[in-house]
Amino acid sequence: MSASDVAIATIKMEHRSLGTVLQTLRELLTSVAAGQAAADFGLLSAALYYMNDFPERCHHPKEEEYLFKCLRMRTAELDPVLERLQAEHARSAGVLGELNRKLVLYQAGAPDGLRHFQESVDNHAADMLAHFIVEDDVLRRANEVLTEPDWVHIAEAFAANDDPLFGSNHRTEFTHLYRRIMVLPPQKVRRRFTDH
Ligand SMILES: [Fe+2]
Ligand SMILES: [Fe+2]
User: Fold this and answer.
1) HSE of 196, CA atoms in CB hemisphere, 13 A
2) In angstroms, what is the span from residue 85 Cα to ligand 2's centroid?
């Protein structure tokens, strides 16, 4: 595999990990709203914790520091889309903070707490899916404009896969979430986020 193949595959794998957790969260809330399951707040909190930890600590910074920076050096053509993506990265911590607040309200028994939390999760999932689709286009364009040394640089940065849920440095606080994802039917969880 070339360095570009490795880098692109790693970035797409990280998108799939994030998409899988978001879709799992949506499935859990759908079951609770339909009266088919009791809310497992430990699980819901772990999913939000992951959605905050992995993108903010690892995925977004690497995209900006390596992929976007290399692209800006090679072409100005992608500047508007890179600015859009970077603005979405900057907003995501605030969005996650709001989701956490709504989960607390739901757990505390606030009126319509489940509905408000579920709507916000659905909106965030739709935003993230749109973000990944734009990044897929950026990766296609990157394949045309970046050099082999650029890709080696990017692949090396992404090689240290710090995914605390699906990566080799799996963290114990996500064990319950990991097990829960593994027992869900794969087509139910992954379909929407892997077909784009
Ligand atoms: Fe991104
Ligand atoms: Fe991304």
Assistant:
1) 19
2) 9
